[in-house]
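Project outcomes to date are best conveyed with an example. Our students and postdoctoral researchers have been running inverse folding experiments weekly, and each run begins with a structure described purely in tokens. The record below, which covers 131 residues, was selected by the lab manager from last quarter's runs and is presented without edits.
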């Protein structure tokens, strides 16, 4: 047992796990999700202006902690959870050219996009929106 705790293999495993976890967090946090956001805005008849990544752990108008706490979680692969939320600040233009801003939450479950939530909600454009 004592040999196992002093083993260099354990140290390398810990270093690798920390490195991998940090790399996955950075990828998820720094990714812009521009294509996904642009697709949703285009469906509503709006034009994407920019996508900003908020500071780490800033959830904007969304609650910081959501329940229930005992809900079923997706499996992890090498300690990487397949369930996470990511937030972005989106600037877009409506059909009349007025720039607006909204927060978007992208919710992933089982490593796939489950839903996209906007605050404030983005209303679909209508023919009356055009000048």
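After processing, the design step wrote out the following sequence:
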């Amino acid at each position: 047992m004592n040999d196992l705790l002093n083993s260099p293999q354990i140290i390398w495993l810990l270093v690798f796990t920390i490195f991998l976890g940090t790399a996955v967090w950075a990828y998820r946090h720094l990714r812009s999700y521009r294509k996904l956001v642009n697709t949703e805005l285009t469906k509503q008849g709006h034009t994407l202006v920019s996508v900003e990544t908020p500071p780490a752990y800033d959830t904007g108008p969304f609650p910081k902690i959501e329940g229930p706490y005992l809900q079923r979680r997706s499996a992890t692969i090498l300690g990487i959870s397949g369930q996470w939320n990511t937030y972005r600040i989106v600037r877009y233009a409506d059909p009349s050219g007025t720039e607006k801003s909204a927060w978007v939450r992208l919710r992933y479950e089982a490593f796939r996009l489950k839903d996209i939530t906007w605050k404030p909600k983005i209303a679909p454009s209508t023919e009356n929106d055009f000048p």
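The CA atoms of residues 10 and 56 lie 30 Å apart. Residues 1-30 form one domain. The training component of this project remains on track.
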